[in-house]
Automatic annotation (TrEMBL):
Key word Aminoacyl-tRNA synthetase present: no
Keywords assigned: DNA-binding, Repressor, Transcription, Transcription regulation
Species: Saccharothrix australiensis
Any GO MF annotation of the entry: DNA-binding transcription factor activity
Keyword DNA-binding appears in the UniProt entry: yes
Protein name as catalogued: TetR family transcriptional regulator
Protein backbone atom coordinates (compact mmCIF):
# COMPACT_ATOMS: atom_id res chain seq x y z
CA UNK A 1 0.00 0.00 0.00
CA UNK A 2 1.44 3.45 -0.90
CA UNK A 3 2.48 5.65 1.99
CA UNK A 4 0.42 8.48 0.50
CA UNK A 5 -2.77 6.99 -0.97
CA UNK A 6 -3.74 8.40 -4.36
CA UNK A 7 -6.78 10.66 -4.12
CA UNK A 8 -9.33 11.40 -6.80
CA UNK A 9 -12.76 12.98 -6.77
CA UNK A 10 -14.60 9.67 -7.02
CA UNK A 11 -12.76 8.12 -4.08
CA UNK A 12 -13.29 11.21 -1.94
CA UNK A 13 -17.03 11.29 -2.71
CA UNK A 14 -17.40 7.59 -1.96
CA UNK A 15 -15.64 7.92 1.39
CA UNK A 16 -17.69 10.99 2.31
CA UNK A 17 -20.93 9.23 1.45
CA UNK A 18 -19.86 6.21 3.50
CA UNK A 19 -19.38 8.46 6.53
CA UNK A 20 -22.73 10.20 5.97
CA UNK A 21 -24.52 6.85 5.63
CA UNK A 22 -22.87 5.60 8.82
CA UNK A 23 -22.69 8.71 11.01
CA UNK A 24 -25.18 11.18 9.53
CA UNK A 25 -24.59 14.61 8.02
CA UNK A 26 -23.30 16.02 11.29
CA UNK A 27 -20.78 13.19 11.46
CA UNK A 28 -18.93 14.30 8.34
CA UNK A 29 -15.88 16.49 8.81
CA UNK A 30 -12.83 17.02 6.66
CA UNK A 31 -10.68 15.63 9.46
CA UNK A 32 -12.76 12.45 9.71
CA UNK A 33 -12.81 12.12 5.93
CA UNK A 34 -9.03 12.40 5.79
CA UNK A 35 -8.68 9.70 8.44
CA UNK A 36 -11.08 7.47 6.47
CA UNK A 37 -8.90 7.91 3.39
CA UNK A 38 -5.61 7.54 5.26
CA UNK A 39 -4.32 11.01 4.37
CA UNK A 40 -3.79 14.38 6.03
CA UNK A 41 -6.73 16.78 5.99
CA UNK A 42 -4.66 19.31 4.03
CA UNK A 43 -4.41 16.82 1.16
CA UNK A 44 -8.15 17.04 0.59
CA UNK A 45 -8.19 20.73 -0.17
CA UNK A 46 -6.41 20.20 -3.46
CA UNK A 47 -9.52 18.32 -4.60
CA UNK A 48 -12.40 20.04 -2.81
CA UNK A 49 -12.43 23.58 -1.41
CA UNK A 50 -14.96 23.25 1.41
CA UNK A 51 -17.18 20.71 3.13
CA UNK A 52 -20.21 22.37 1.55
CA UNK A 53 -18.71 21.94 -1.93
CA UNK A 54 -18.05 18.30 -1.11
CA UNK A 55 -21.64 17.78 -0.02
CA UNK A 56 -22.89 19.24 -3.31
CA UNK A 57 -20.60 16.84 -5.19
CA UNK A 58 -21.85 13.87 -3.17
CA UNK A 59 -25.46 14.96 -3.70
CA UNK A 60 -24.81 15.37 -7.42
CA UNK A 61 -23.46 11.83 -7.67
CA UNK A 62 -26.57 10.47 -5.96
CA UNK A 63 -28.86 12.45 -8.24
CA UNK A 64 -27.21 10.92 -11.30
CA UNK A 65 -29.40 7.92 -10.45
CA UNK A 66 -32.58 9.91 -11.12
CA UNK A 67 -34.04 8.76 -14.44
CA UNK A 68 -35.56 11.44 -16.68
CA UNK A 69 -35.42 9.25 -19.78
CA UNK A 70 -39.14 8.58 -19.49
CA UNK A 71 -39.86 12.01 -20.94
CA UNK A 72 -38.12 11.17 -24.22
CA UNK A 73 -41.20 9.59 -25.79
CA UNK A 74 -43.32 12.68 -25.22
CA UNK A 75 -45.51 11.14 -22.49
CA UNK A 76 -45.19 13.57 -19.60
CA UNK A 77 -47.18 11.29 -17.27
CA UNK A 78 -44.77 8.39 -17.82
CA UNK A 79 -41.86 10.78 -17.44
CA UNK A 80 -43.08 12.07 -14.08
CA UNK A 81 -43.74 8.58 -12.72
CA UNK A 82 -40.36 7.22 -13.83
CA UNK A 83 -38.57 10.26 -12.49
CA UNK A 84 -40.35 10.16 -9.14
CA UNK A 85 -39.76 6.45 -8.56
CA UNK A 86 -36.07 6.60 -9.42
CA UNK A 87 -35.66 9.78 -7.36
CA UNK A 88 -37.22 8.14 -4.31
CA UNK A 89 -35.07 5.02 -4.78
CA UNK A 90 -31.89 7.11 -4.99
CA UNK A 91 -32.73 8.95 -1.77
CA UNK A 92 -33.92 5.82 0.03
CA UNK A 93 -30.44 4.34 -0.44
CA UNK A 94 -28.87 7.31 1.39
CA UNK A 95 -31.51 8.83 3.72
CA UNK A 96 -29.03 10.75 5.85
CA UNK A 97 -28.25 13.19 3.05
CA UNK A 98 -31.88 14.01 2.30
CA UNK A 99 -32.00 17.09 4.59
CA UNK A 100 -29.12 18.60 2.61
CA UNK A 101 -30.89 17.93 -0.68
CA UNK A 102 -33.96 19.74 0.62
CA UNK A 103 -32.16 23.09 0.30
CA UNK A 104 -32.74 23.12 -3.46
CA UNK A 105 -30.85 22.43 -6.71
CA UNK A 106 -29.14 25.77 -7.34
CA UNK A 107 -25.54 24.55 -6.94
CA UNK A 108 -25.89 21.02 -8.32
CA UNK A 109 -25.27 20.36 -12.01
CA UNK A 110 -26.99 16.96 -11.88
CA UNK A 111 -30.13 18.53 -10.43
CA UNK A 112 -30.21 21.37 -12.93
CA UNK A 113 -29.68 19.09 -15.94
CA UNK A 114 -32.57 16.87 -14.88
CA UNK A 115 -34.78 19.81 -14.01
CA UNK A 116 -34.08 21.27 -17.44
CA UNK A 117 -35.29 18.03 -19.07
CA UNK A 118 -38.43 17.89 -16.92
CA UNK A 119 -39.28 21.55 -17.49
CA UNK A 120 -38.68 21.34 -21.23
CA UNK A 121 -40.79 18.19 -21.61
CA UNK A 122 -43.70 19.68 -19.67
CA UNK A 123 -43.68 22.89 -21.70
CA UNK A 124 -43.47 20.87 -24.92
CA UNK A 125 -46.53 18.91 -23.74
CA UNK A 126 -48.56 22.12 -23.49
CA UNK A 127 -48.08 23.25 -19.90
CA UNK A 128 -47.18 26.88 -19.37
CA UNK A 129 -43.73 27.68 -18.04
CA UNK A 130 -45.24 28.63 -14.68
CA UNK A 131 -47.22 25.40 -14.52
CA UNK A 132 -44.15 23.39 -15.48
CA UNK A 133 -42.22 25.00 -12.63
CA UNK A 134 -45.02 24.25 -10.19
CA UNK A 135 -45.29 20.62 -11.35
CA UNK A 136 -41.54 20.08 -10.99
CA UNK A 137 -41.60 21.68 -7.53
CA UNK A 138 -44.58 19.56 -6.49
CA UNK A 139 -42.77 16.41 -7.61
CA UNK A 140 -39.78 17.36 -5.46
CA UNK A 141 -42.07 18.01 -2.48
CA UNK A 142 -43.66 14.59 -2.93
CA UNK A 143 -40.38 12.70 -3.18
CA UNK A 144 -38.55 14.57 -0.43
CA UNK A 145 -41.50 14.19 1.88
CA UNK A 146 -41.50 10.44 1.30
CA UNK A 147 -37.74 10.25 1.79
CA UNK A 148 -37.45 12.42 4.90
CA UNK A 149 -39.44 10.15 7.17
CA UNK A 150 -41.41 6.94 7.45
CA UNK A 151 -45.03 7.48 8.45
CA UNK A 152 -45.44 3.84 9.43
CA UNK A 153 -42.28 3.55 11.52
CA UNK A 154 -43.38 6.58 13.52
CA UNK A 155 -45.92 4.50 15.44
CA UNK A 156 -45.29 2.49 18.57
CA UNK A 157 -45.67 -1.28 18.50
CA UNK A 158 -47.32 -1.06 21.92
CA UNK A 159 -50.99 -1.86 21.36
CA UNK A 160 -52.08 -0.28 24.64
CA UNK A 161 -50.84 3.12 23.51
CA UNK A 162 -53.64 3.56 20.97
CA UNK A 163 -56.52 1.18 21.66
CA UNK A 164 -58.41 3.00 24.44
CA UNK A 165 -57.63 6.64 23.80
CA UNK A 166 -57.77 6.48 19.99
CA UNK A 167 -60.37 3.89 18.98
CA UNK A 168 -59.96 4.60 15.28
CA UNK A 169 -56.26 3.80 15.58
CA UNK A 170 -56.71 0.46 17.31
CA UNK A 171 -54.52 -1.24 14.67
CA UNK A 172 -51.83 1.43 14.59
CA UNK A 173 -49.44 -0.73 16.60
CA UNK A 174 -49.20 -3.05 13.58
CA UNK A 175 -47.83 -0.37 11.26
CA UNK A 176 -44.12 -0.67 12.15
CA UNK A 177 -44.12 -4.34 11.14
CA UNK A 178 -45.32 -3.51 7.62
CA UNK A 179 -43.58 -0.14 7.32
CA UNK A 180 -41.64 -0.77 4.11
CA UNK A 181 -44.69 -2.08 2.25
CA UNK A 182 -47.05 0.59 3.54
CA UNK A 183 -44.65 3.46 2.92
CA UNK A 184 -44.07 2.21 -0.64
CA UNK A 185 -47.78 1.81 -1.32
CA UNK A 186 -48.55 5.20 0.23
CA UNK A 187 -45.97 6.85 -2.02
CA UNK A 188 -47.46 5.11 -5.05
CA UNK A 189 -50.95 6.26 -4.04
CA UNK A 190 -49.80 9.86 -3.71
CA UNK A 191 -47.89 9.70 -7.00
CA UNK A 192 -50.89 8.25 -8.84
CA UNK A 193 -53.20 10.91 -7.36
CA UNK A 194 -50.71 13.61 -8.36
CA UNK A 195 -50.37 12.49 -11.98
CA UNK A 196 -54.06 11.69 -12.36
CA UNK A 197 -55.01 15.07 -10.96
CA UNK A 198 -52.67 16.81 -13.38
CA UNK A 199 -54.17 14.82 -16.25
CA UNK A 200 -57.67 15.96 -15.29
CA UNK A 201 -56.47 19.54 -15.08
CA UNK A 202 -54.86 19.27 -18.52
CA UNK A 203 -58.16 18.08 -20.01
CA UNK A 204 -60.24 20.69 -18.18
Amino acid sequence: MPRNPVLDASRIRAAALHIIDRDGLAGLSMRKLAAELGVRAASLYGHVATKDDLLHEVAGAILEEVDVGGFAGGDWRHGLVTCARSYRAALAAHPNIVPFLAYGPAHREASLRRLDVVHGALVAAGWTRREATMIAASLVYLVLGAALSSFSRGFSADRARYGDRYPNLDKAHLLPSVAAELDHDSFELALDAFVTGLGQRARG
